[in-house]
């Protein structure tokens, strides 16, 4: 008996290991990033070890490579101009973009092989030029190689410059489940070159504004007012207006990540994902026939109407949101919202369970308590959500008839 008591005491002897790690990385905005006299990239690469020559691998989204055929020449000329500080290990490598790269892990394996082959270590750099999907996928590869190679993101879309590019997440899909495989790994730097936006399609350029509307709705009512007042200029891609929108959206996302208290999402709440529970599911239901930004626009409208029906958001506020989305040419409804699943429930509602499973814990969905004020709830009434979907369909039909 005495021996058993001693054994129990030793088994419950607990030692706590505690430490904290500070993260910081620059988020910069510029133009002509590969102009020889623009030292931003070289300065960022050498900011901690100014007297060292730094080794770099560069990857370019295939869409960017196609629309910027002289990009390789520009990059190589830039490295030549700054050869005392950095070395390009091989010519820029083109990788597929869009959801393909997130669904096909062969690209990640290829990057890991490059890291091994070229001897890239934790003090060398992987530089990724592209949209959010490419940044996500290759960011994951960089985070896995040697358990963390320095990553520099050069976002090339509105969506990645004003939202995803400044985050700390890297992820790919798994068997149709969005962002199932991933890491939290802050980048070394995020460098936004506004010039990349000029070759985007009108559809993609507008879709990225949805994330600015989202963060304005949950964090900054004055920014939402500004978006309303400048909707026409945004729809016409006025350079100055677009830059202000991207900068303010990025700032708000950075504030939430840095000051929100849960940058690595250890809790059950995803406050920056307002409108996203349905958006992620809608992307899957349409087999990515609509883009992420378009799906988010629909999710924003849906959850705004639901917020009104539940008495959280004053009636009429949803009309302002829908008007802004429509003025920018963004959708507020898709017929796939009406699809029934095998259980005769609306298939989109399965997105609630998937949204919860992604984080674990209790279901937490951010709704609106005002324009600029998010409000978390832990249950969604399916009957009321169905009524919100019906309202969106009626609004879409009314608009089509007009």
UniProtKB/TrEMBL annotation:
UniProt cross-references to SUPFAM superfamilies, sorted A to Z: Dehydroquinate synthase-like
Molecular function as annotated in GO: 3-dehydroquinate synthase activity
Swiss-Prot/TrEMBL keywords: Amino-acid biosynthesis, Aromatic amino acid biosynthesis, Lyase, NAD
Domain 3-dehydroquinate synthase N-terminal: 93-204
Domain 3-dehydroquinate synthase C-terminal, residue spans: 208-335
Presence of keyword Disulfide bond: no
Single biological process term from Gene Ontology: aromatic amino acid family biosynthetic process
Cofactor(s) named in the record: NAD(+)
Family annotation (CDD domains): DHQS-like
Superkingdom of the organism of origin: Bacteria
Pfam families: DHQ_synthase, DHQS_C
Name assigned to this protein: 3-dehydroquinate synthase
Organism (species): Salinicola socius
Biological classification of the source: Bacteria, Pseudomonadati, Pseudomonadota, Gammaproteobacteria, Oceanospirillales
């Amino acid at each position: 008996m005495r021996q058993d008591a001693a054994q129990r005491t030793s088994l419950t002897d607990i030692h706590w290991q505690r430490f904290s790690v500070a993260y910081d990385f620059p988020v910069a905005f510029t133009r002509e990033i590969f102009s020889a006299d623009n030292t931003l990239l070289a300065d960022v690469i050498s900011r901690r070890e100014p007297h060292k020559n730094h080794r770099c691998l560069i990857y370019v989204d295939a869409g960017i490579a196609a629309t910027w055929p002289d990009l390789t020449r520009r990059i190589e000329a830039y490295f030549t101009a700054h050869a005392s500080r950095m070395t390009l290990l091989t010519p820029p490598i083109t990788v597929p973009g869009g959801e393909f790269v997130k669904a096909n892990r062969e690209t990640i394996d290829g990057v890991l092989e490059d890291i091994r082959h070229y001897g890239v270590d934790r003090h060398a750099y992987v530089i990724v030029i592209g949209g959010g999907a490419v940044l996500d996928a290759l960011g994951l590869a960089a985070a896995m190689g040697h358990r963390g190679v320095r990553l520099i993101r050069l976002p090339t879309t509105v969506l990645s410059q004003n939202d995803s590019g400044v985050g700390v997440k890297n992820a790919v899909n798994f068997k149709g489940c969005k962002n199932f495989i991933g890491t939290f790994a802050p980048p070394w730097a995020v460098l936004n070159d506004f010039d990349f936006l000029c070759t985007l399609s009108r559809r993609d350029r507008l879709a990225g504004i949805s994330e600015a509307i989202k963060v304005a709705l949950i964090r900054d009512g004055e920014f939402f007012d500004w978006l309303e007042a400048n909707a026409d200029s945004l729809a016409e891609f006025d350079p100055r207006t677009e830059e202000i929108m991207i900068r303010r959206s990025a700032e708000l996302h950075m504030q939430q990540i840095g000051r929100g208290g849960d940058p690595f999402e250890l809790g059950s709440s995803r406050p920056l994902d307002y409108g996203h529970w349905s958006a992620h599911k809608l992307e899957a239901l349409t087999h990515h026939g609509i883009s992420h930004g378009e799906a988010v626009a629909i999710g924003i409208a849906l959850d705004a109407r639901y917020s009104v029906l539940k008495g959280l958001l004053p009636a009429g506020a949803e009309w302002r949101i829908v008007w802004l989305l429509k003025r920018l040419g963004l959708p507020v409804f898709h017929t796939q919202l009406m699809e029934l699943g095998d259980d005769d429930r609306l298939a989109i509602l399965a997105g609630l369970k998937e949204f919860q499973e992604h984080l674990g814990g209790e279901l937490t969905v951010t709704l609106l308590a005002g324009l600029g004020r998010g409000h978390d709830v832990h249950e969604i009434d399916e009957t009321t959500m169905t009524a919100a979907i019906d309202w969106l369909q009626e609004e879409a039909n009314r608009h089509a008839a007009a």
